[in-house]
Amino acid sequence: MLPGISVVIPLYNKGPYIARALNSVLAQTVRDFEVIVVDDGSTDDGAETVRGFEDPRIRLIRQENRGVSAARNEGIEAARAELVAFLDADDEWMPRHLEALLRLQDKFPRAGAYGTAYLLKENDSTIRVPPFSTDIPPEPWEGLLSNYYRDAIRGTPPISSSIVAVPKRILDEMAGFDTGAWYGEDVDLWGRIALKYPIAFTWDGMGIYHKEAENRACNKKEPIREHIFVIFARNALQAGEVPPELKGDLLEYVASRQIQIACRNLEAGRPDLARVNLKRCKTRHLWKSKYLALFRAHVPSGIYPVLSNWRSKVKGISARKPGAKTQKGGAPK
Questions:
Q1: What distance in Å separates the CA atoms of residue 217 and residue 256, rounded to the nearest whole number?
Q2: pLDDT in tens, 136-183
Q3: How many Cα atoms occupy the beta-carbon half-sphere of 298 within 13 Å?
Q4: Cβ–Cβ < 8 Å for 105, 114
Q5: Which residues touch 273 (CB under 8 Å, ≥6 apart)?
Q6: Among residues of the chain, what percentage have pLDDT more than 90?
Q7: Which residues are CB-contacts of 53 (< 8 A; sequence separation ≥ 6)?
Q8: The model scores a pTM over 0.90
Q9: Which of 140, 168, 196, 278 is the most buried (most CB within 10 A)?
């Protein structure tokens, strides 16, 4: 018999975390699942840890190092269920996660993707709910997002690579994850899906996103010429494939990705690339973020941290001045 849902976990040098991820899957209230771990040429003991789990629902596939997109695509190809859930090897789920995703699929069968809210764990003592868009109704709401692009701009993106499930037919339609990019490949797929299908969301069954984990791809300080989704969106707009009601929010979402890549290029020591990203950026609502990044791209690299530190000190001195306005509880504004 086919499983009710397939879980795909890409694995690359995440030996210290993979057992935690697998244990969170095995602790699910839903029991009818399969787990496909794709080891992408790891050089640590992660694959051996997976082999140590004797649960027959867990399969290990090993391949030469080809990147996270190729690993996820390999897992999709091997998946037997009609719904495929994704979990990164250094993250974990709350026990009702798969139950919540399957309930969303049952309630909204025409959705292109299903996601839950999630918690951010930044260190051993800090775990919090990120600031999702206020356009998303508060918990315990679940339903179809009114506009994925707008929600992703106005708050923490409502879809993440560790809390989403996608019907296999839609993954096939989208040709899976783009293997040509090492950064933003997951954001690219969610954005492509959202252009054609509604996205379902629930506050139930959260995942836990571990920002404190080591060897995370998003921590790499390497230059990026252009966000992969920006390229897709530009082509879709030129081809007339964007519905009129989505065009304005899609353009702002594209601008947000351009600003993000510009900031990453600044961190990678490439202000020249950042200036190119920002020159192409057209925005009506994110102009403050754009011009702050543009300012940083034009000042010498050592000056901006000094100015930022000076500004923080000035704000701190102002807050301590006698007669400074206070909020409830007496804390300085």
A1: 20
A2: 999 999 999 999 999 999 999 999 999 999 999 999 999 999 999 989
A3: 8
A4: yes
A5: 223, 224, 225, 262, 265
A6: 82
A7: 19, 22, 26
A8: no
A9: 278
